[in-house]
User: What shape does this take?
Amino acid sequence: MSHREVDLIVKNATQLLTLQSENRGPRRGVQMEDLGLVSDGAVAVADGHIAAVGTTRDVLDAVSPSEVTKVIDATGKVVMPGFVDPHTHPIFAGLREQEFELRIKGASYQQIAASGGGIRSSVHSLRQSTKRDLKEQARPRLDRMLALGTTTAEAKSGYGLNLKDEIKSLEAINELNETHPLELIPTFLGAHEVPDEFKQNREEYIRLVCEEMIPQVVRRGLAEFCDIFCERGVFDVEESREILTAAQNAGLKLKLHADELAASGGAFLAAELEVISADHLVFVSQEGIDAMREAGVIAVLLPGTTFSLGLSRYAPARRMIDAGLPVALATDLNPGSCMTESMPMIITLACLQMEMTPAEAITAATVNAAYAVDRDQQLGSIEVGKQADLVVWDMPNYKVLPYHFGVNLVEMVMKSGRVVYRQGQFLYGGG
Ligand code: NIG
Ligand code: FE
Assistant: This one.
């Protein structure tokens, strides 16, 4: 290795989790246990990218620090890639904490939605908000994500449900991405629900999504993915196929909310369309799991949603991993079914409620999550050439992460080699 000038070195990490592997592609089966762990590890960063990684001795041999090189000592700490949160709905106005209480008192998510709450109540408040207001409400959410170790998040529209307000939401996401260190990957979710004004005429709403919203979103470059809520009582498989096919033909990559509240056929549609990810999957069948595996679909699981809805049935992560289906984890951050920014919390739930091991859960929140947003070339592991998105954790080994729950053990976050959060302080405007 030639001696290379570097901007930053993190050294002496008690455990450096590189997530590097010989295996290409999303990690599946026993591969999900392999964290690419280096004891006494170091990472060197140049121009925002990883220039060297290995043991502290090897890295210090390979690179030449200059007077301006920042050196971070991670003795006694764990260093790993920033989390990629591959499923969030961060653009909404106002909260829905009253629905949380109604559920405690026995109402179901579907009952609340049918009586005027749910997604449609968030649509009502988003339509009345300006873009500036939406960005102001979203910014502290992005700050919290960063402080909890997330350096990239997929972000959906879906509370506008008309051309103007879906565009407004996607513009808010794109503008936040420009101005906030958390990297956002925008997803168009115009098919999150049928808005009230089209309840008697759902075909017309689907036509609007396919023929007006999708072309405009694509023409203006506002989204990379298209998602849909394929669920009993929302969009059925045929409608979902129609919308996703229109999106694919227009050049968007595909995701779908599948089998969240009932077995709705979403997993089979995901396999048929070879989407990048199918998300939720609480009610997926073994045949659905097998079909997704054969089609190369990634399962994005959202145990925070099951938890926050007060339900007891979680997605069958264990069966998926044992069947060789790659699993990723996400928060599902949204005001209705899962109000959390915390990937550490999701990891704890994945371990306790879905029998994932700590190593599997970390793989699912980093490298597999990067695959779920089609960023495996840039993110999700600490490898030479990838973006230097790193988190230093105040813990002696990674198994402490799910075990010591409900607190934030993140000490430092680096986005593209820049320290953006350190010991409770945000090192950028805002925060
Ligand atoms: O992923 N399932 C659809 N969307 C969200 C819920 C959105 C809401 O209730 O506002 C979810 O659970
Ligand atoms: Fe969702």
